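During the first year of the project, the team set up a workflow for recording each protein of interest as an amino acid sequence followed immediately by a discrete structure-token representation. This format lets reviewers and collaborators read both layers of information side by side without switching files. As required by the reporting guidelines, we include two representative entries from the current panel. The first entry is reproduced here exactly as it appears in our internal archive.
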Amino acid sequence: MTSDGIAAESSGATRERYIDVVRRLTAAQKPAARSAPAYSRFVNRRIGRYLAAWAYRAGLSPNAVTAISAVWTFVAIALLIVLPPSWGQGIAVAVLLLIGYAFDSADGQVSRLQGTSSPAGEWLDHMVDATKVSTMPLALAIGFYRFDVVPTLWLLVPIAFAIVSAVLFFGMILTEQLRRRTAGSVPLATEQPGRPSWMRALAVLPMDYGVLCLSFVLLGAVPVFVVVYTLIAAATTLFLLLAAAKWFRELRSWSPDTSATTQKGDL
């Protein structure tokens, strides 16, 4: 496409009505994975769609939207360290995290609208996600230690959660990459047989990142928050163990044929 064509396309994006952009996004929405939890699937994707339409009309690039998501998210994480637990702090942290999460959903949608999907953009998105899932529980542990609001032994919960979150994120990304190498014999998460259901979406709610964000509202009542957070951490750990076993079985069942041989270590 020529520079004049790009300029015309950009000009057209600014003239397109907001509601028309939203409708285009709705029609082009990627299918949700069968295991997609309720908040992420039914709430966050919708909010992200509205933000993506705004960003598209504003001429923002997908990487700029990723950067906006990172700013909201890491400001929230910083508040966990610098402010003592309170209702005000908890609400602020939850709102900031949820806005960051919505922009995280929006960047990919902007990319599809602009037709600018790239390995660099996907890399940036995953790097931000990998950083936040590890730093959030560690920031919580540091903040609780600084303000001495929980027994020291309990600090092992968010520290362990940081490890579980990092391993789960890596496992999900690596499993999808390896599934692609099987040339379709092991379906991707969005290609699993069967349709997404309300029952499944509700069953995995404890592992929903949106629910984790909402849990910080309870920081004004630390004993209640500690119970809820520990249950979320335990549920996520159980999910990781079950998912890891399932992923291993899927990949172990794949036998490459001579026509689809791939280079070892080529991801």
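The second entry, processed by the same pipeline in the following quarter, appears below.
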Amino acid sequence: MVKLNVNPTRMELTRLKKQLTTASRGHKLLKDKQDELMRRFILLVRKTNEMRGEVEEELQQAMKNFSVADALLNDKYIEELLAVPKERVTLDVIEKDVMSVKVPVMNFQHDSDLADGPLEYGFLNSNDELDQSIKRFTKVLPKLLELTEIEKTCQLMAKEIEKTRRRVNALEYMTIPQLEETIYFIQMKLEENERAEVTRMIKVKNMGTT
């Protein structure tokens, strides 16, 4: 490790010791932050995987129902049926602070009773597969929106973890070792100067007594 290019003086030694104390304290705080971020990140990833499995299974079933309906029904009828949505979904995005990470909070406004309510189209040209498909898509919508929020939070936390990790490593493997080596060098240099000064004074004293 290359030491810092400083003058080996007591003033410089005091300054570097203060820097080392600050760097060591900063390293501990960042390491604690990194550990807590990792803990929360792992919990979110587990929740994401669980929710993703549920959402994907529901979507697959909905797509199977829709594929069968599409094969049996007139394409123009399905197109007209789905052209105008039954419900409007609004989204408000705000931010909250999680360990210095600005993560989104997505507030979705939608009819919570939509999945249980009657489908607003005629049943004459429809079939059960289409009905089931639309109901499944409607039912999975809230989970899909929640999954979107959690996955975005995971992405932002992963970036912050990586940034924190780089700062921790920079302090641990570069800044702190450089300061420690430079402090050691100055201490050795000062002790060497003191010994040289003592030796000089002894010689001067001996010359005065002869």
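For the second entry, the following points were noted during internal review. DSSP finds three helices and two strands in the chain. Residues 6 and 12 are 7 Å apart (CA to CA). Both points are flagged for discussion at the upcoming steering committee meeting.
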